[in-house]
Amino acid sequence: MTQPDAQQQPMQDMTGAKALWATLAAHGVSTVFGYPGGAIMPVYDALTFYPEVRHVLTRHEQGAVHAAEGWAKATGEIGVCIATSGPGATNLVTGLADAMMDNVPLLAITGNVARHLMGTDAFQEADITGITLPITKHNYVVTDPDELPMIVAEAIRIARSGRPGPVLVDIPKDVQLAAFGGELVRPQAHPETPAPRPEVIRAARELLLGAKKPVLMVGGGAQGAAREITEFARAWQLPTITTLMGLGAFPASDPLWLGMPGMHGSVAANHAISQADVLIGFGLRFDDRVTGRVKDFAPQAQVIHVDLDAAEIGKIVRTHLPVRSDAAHAARALTEDAVPFDLPEWRAQLAEWRTRGEHPTTWGAAQAVRQVVARLRPDDILTTDVGQHQMLAAQLARFEKPRRWLTSGGLGTMGFGFPAGLGAAMAEPGVRSIVIAGDGGFQMTAQELATLTKYDIRNVKICIINNSYLGMVRQWQELFHEKRYSEVYLGDSNPDFLKLADAYNIKGWRAENSGDLESAIDAWLSHDGSGLLEVVVPNEHGVFPMVPAGAALYEMIETEPLKTAPHKAPDLGEKMNVVAEEQEARQ
Amino acid sequence: MTSPVQPVPDHLVSALVRDEPRVLTRITSLFGRRGYNIKSLSVGTTEMPGVSRMTFVVSGERGVVEQAMKQLDKLHDVVKIIDHSLEKYVDRELVLVKVRVENSERRIEIRQMAEDFRARIVDVGRHALTFEVTGDEGKITAFIEQMRPFGILETMRTGRIALTRGSNADIASHIYHDGQTETLEPVYSSAPREGKAREVNNLF
Ligand SMILES: Cc1ncc(C[n+]2csc(CCOP(=O)(O)OP(=O)(O)O)c2C)c(N)n1
C-alpha cells in the first residue's frame, strides 16, 4: 500500500474534510465504499483532492457497509464506508450490527447536520451515535475540526485492536467545512495483545496430558492465528473442530479435522463435543447456535477457554480453566513440549462418526453447492448469504486457509453475501470471489450488480440457489410448525435472474437439473469476467444434520427424515420449547 | 425450586470513566440491554481532569455481576473498574427524609431520635420535619426504620458512593473468571488504558 505524504495539501487550505482524507490516506486506506448526500458533501468535495483514495459508489448504503466488511474480512485490514446523515446513516445500521457480532474491523464515517442544528430535528438529522451505541465498539461526534485526525486515528486503532469491531465517526457538516488548524497524526501503534501467564499454560498442559477424549474447538477469533493453531493441533494430534466463523483456521484436508459444530454441524463434531473429557476452545464465544442446550453442552468435559475478551470467558459455558490471551500467543506456548496423543479408541470412535450424516445425492441444493465448492481453489474467496445454502456451503466447502470464507455468522444478515463478496473481490482482484446466495437474500442487495458493472469488477462469481422459497424458514415451518408455510413463497414473483443480470450487462447461466449443472458451472467459472449462475432446485430439501432449537448437540437429527412417509412432526418433546431454551440460556 | 423471596445480593462497584459525551448512556444502556439491575448509581468528577467516577450498586448473583463488570470494562470510555468486595472500602450515602409531625409531643420525640443519628434538620414545616442523614447503609436503614412509625412522607437518596481504603496507587484491576479473580498490575499509576483522556465539549 502506498503511504502518500499526508502533508501534500498546503496546510492553509486544509479543512476538516480534507484532514479526514489526509488521515485516511496516512493510514493506508486505499478504498472506501460510500454514498453521498447533503450533510457529507464537503467530504465528497474534498475527495477530489485525494486521488490516492479510491471511492466506490455503491447503490445503497447497506451495499457499502457490507462491501467494506467483505474487504476487511478478506484482508484483516480496516474496511471503510461513508454515508450522509439521516437515512444514509441509518442504512448503515444493519452492517454495523453485523460487524459488531462478527468482529469485523470497520470504520464508518457519517455526515451530520451542522453543530448549531444538532438536536433541533433538522432536515435529515438522525442521532446516529445514539442509534449505534450498542452496535459499535465505540463512536464519536467530532465537535472540533482540529481533533478530527486524532479521532479518526483513534477510531481506526479501536476498530482493529483487541477484539476488532466497528467504530463510527459522525462529522457535522460545519466541522467538515471549518478551517483546520490542528495537526495531522501518524497511525497509532497497536496495543500489545495479552500473552498467557506461564502458570495458566502449565495448568492447561496438565489438563491436556490427562485427557482421554480431547477436542480442540477453533472459532473466528483464531482466524488470525491459523498457523499457530494448526501447529498446536498437529503437535498434540488433537481432533479439531472449526466453528462457522472459524472455518479455514485449520486446514480441512487434515485428518484431524472433524468439521463444524452446532445446529447444522457435523455428526462427528457434535458427538465429539458431547463425549469429550477435555475441550479446549480458542477465540470463540459459544454462541447458542453452537452449543445447543447449554446445560448439556460438553457435559463431561473440562473446558479450557482461550480468549482475548475476558467477558467471553464463562459467559455461556462453565470454564474450568480460563486463559485470557491472544490465540496465537497461547497456541505457541502450548505447542512447546507437546506430547502427541495416542488414543486409538477415541480415534476409532471419531472415524465412525465421520461416516455419518451424508447429504442427499438426488438433484437439489446440496448437490449444486457440492459441485460449486468442489471447484474452489485454495485462494478463492467463498462468500455466502444467509439460509440453507449458507449452511450447506459451510458443511461442504473445504478450506485450507483462513480468511477465505466470508459469512454473516452472528447476526445472520440476509443481503450480506453479494456486496461482501464484491468488497472482497475489490481487495483481491487476482482471486475469484465466489458468492453463493439464496433467491431471497440475493434480492435484498441485488442492486449492487450495478457496482460490478460500474467498476468493471471481473472476479465476482455469483451463484443463486433458487428454491423459490425462503428455504430456511420453510424448513423450520416444515419441521416445527406442521408445514404451515406462512409467507415464504417467492416463486410466483422472483425475477428472471438471468434477465436481471443481463440488464446490468452481467453474463448469466442457468442449470435446472444435474445434467446441466457441470457444464453450466464450468462456463460460469471460466468466463472472463463476473457472472451469475442460477441453479433451479426443488424446494423440499432441508439441511441436515440439524439440532433442533433447545435440543442438546447429541440429540441432532442426522439425516433428512424420509419425505415419502406421511408427515409427522419429529418427536422433540420439550426440546422445542423456546421458553425453556431462553430460560436455560440465562441459567 | 428456590424460594421466590430469596434476596438477591447487592454488589458495590466503582468505575473511573472518561468524561465524554454519552458515557452515562453507554453504561446504562449496556446494563439495560444485558438485563443487569442497577439499584443505585452516583456520578461525580474526580481529582483528575477529564475523568469521572461512578459508583453502582448492582444486584444479582456473583456471576451476573462479574459479567456486568467485564462488559463494562470493554467500553472504551471506562478507564478502570473497582470491585469493592475485593478491597477494604468506606462507603457513604446521603438521604433526605421528610417525617410527619402530628403534634408537639411527637416533634420532641422525633428530634431526639434524629439527634442520636446525628441527622440534621434541613427544613421545618408545621406538620413535617426534613432530615439529612449521612452514613453507610446500616445507619441509613436503621434511621429510616426508626422514623417509619411516625410516618415517612418522602425520601430521596443519593445512592452509595465508595472509596477504597489506603492509597489509590495500590488499587489493582481485576479480571473475573468463573469463581476466580485474576489481579492485574495497577494501571492507574501509569496512564489510563487507552492513551490520555481527551476533552471533548459536550454538545448535548
Ligand atoms: C435481513 C434478514 N431478514 C430475515 C431473516 C430470516 N431468515 C433467515 S434464513 C431466511 C430465508 C432465506 O431464504 P433464501 O435467501 O432464499 O435462502 P435459502 O434458505 O432458501 O437458501 C430468512 C428469511 C434474516 N436472516 N435476515
Automatic annotation (TrEMBL), chain A:
GO cellular component terms given for this protein: acetolactate synthase complex
SUPFAM superfamilies linked to this entry: DHS-like NAD/FAD-binding domain, Thiamin diphosphate-binding fold (THDP-binding)
Domain Thiamine pyrophosphate enzyme N-terminal TPP-binding as annotated: residue spans: 14-129
Keyword Glycoprotein set for record: no
Cofactor: record remark: Binds 1 thiamine pyrophosphate per subunit. Binds 1 Mg(2+) ion per subunit.
Taxonomic placement: Bacteria, Thermotogati, Deinococcota, Deinococci, Deinococcales
Signal peptide start and end residues: none
GO biological process, one term: isoleucine biosynthetic process
NCBIfam families: acolac_lg
Pathway(s) of this molecule: Amino-acid biosynthesis; L-valine biosynthesis; L-valine from pyruvate: step 1/4; Amino-acid biosynthesis; L-isoleucine biosynthesis; L-isoleucine from 2-oxobutanoate: step 1/4
Cofactor requirement: thiamine diphosphate; Mg(2+)
Enzymatic reactions: 2 pyruvate + H(+) = (2S)-2-acetolactate + CO2
Coiled-coil annotated residue ranges, if any: none
EC number: 2.2.1.6
Biological source species: Deinococcus irradiatisoli
Family note: Belongs to the TPP enzyme family.
Highest taxon of the lineage: Bacteria
Name of the protein: Acetolactate synthase
Domain named Thiamine pyrophosphate enzyme TPP-binding: residues: 385-535
Record keywords: Amino-acid biosynthesis, Branched-chain amino acid biosynthesis, Magnesium, Metal-binding, Thiamine pyrophosphate, Transferase
Metal-binding is among the record's keywords: yes
Thiamine pyrophosphate enzyme central domain boundaries: 201-334
GO MF, one example: acetolactate synthase activity
